[in-house]
Amino acid sequence: MNENPTDAHEQCELGFCYLDGDGIPQDLGKAVYWFTKAAEQGDKSAQFQLGLCYSTGKGVPNDFEMAMHWYTKAAEQGHVTAMYNLSTIFWNEEGGVPRNVKKAKYWTKKAAKEGLEVAESFLFKIQAYESRNGSGVGKILMWVGIGISIITLVAMCSSC
Predict the structure, then answer these.
(1) How many alpha carbons fall within 13 Å on the CB side of residue 160?
(2) How far apart are CA 124 and CA 81, in angstroms?
(3) Fewer CB within 10 A of the end CB, N or C, for the chain?
(4) Can you tell me the mean pLDDT for 118-139?
(5) Looking at residue 3, what DSSP letter applies?
(6) Taking Cα atoms as reference points, which of 119, 110, 30 lies closest to residue 75?
């Protein structure tokens, strides 16, 4: 194993070795160092791992602003679990992040579209919440239903 790789994929792999203690002594600080080197070069797996490290405090202090930064970078490159993690942060108000149903739904839909089953069921939960709270599709359907009922009543009364 190259102890000073310049390739992002190799840097990420070295980060995993330090994270897991695979073939070398576990060192979370060095894991974060190598994940950061790889993430800065655009490696989506390293970006996701940094998001995970910052959201759990593994090798670094908890920092949800940094976690969201790295999760977003990974998600924008198609990392499905990063998409899902962003959605749960927005939904569960983790790390002091205010609930944002719109962003939670956006990232959940993207993860579900990629086939992540847990995201599909989470999307159903978000849609049920929207329906119960008179927002989103539930609110639109409610008003469409009321509008059709009124039009039907007016048509019935005008023919009397």
Answers:
(1) 6
(2) 18
(3) C
(4) 81
(5) S
(6) 110
Domain ranges of the chain: 8-133
The Cα–Cα gap between 127 and 13 comes to 38
Model pTM score: 0.79
Averaged pLDDT of the chain: 86
Cβ-contact 108, 116 below 8 angstroms = no
Cα 41-44-45 angle, rounded to 5 deg = 115
SS3 93: coil
CA pair distance 82, 150, nearest whole angstrom:
46
Look at residues 51, 81, 83 and name the one whose alpha carbon lies nearest to residue 69.
51
Q: What's the fold here for domain 8-133?
A: 1.25.40
Q: Are 110 and 83 in contact (CB under 8 A)?
A: yes
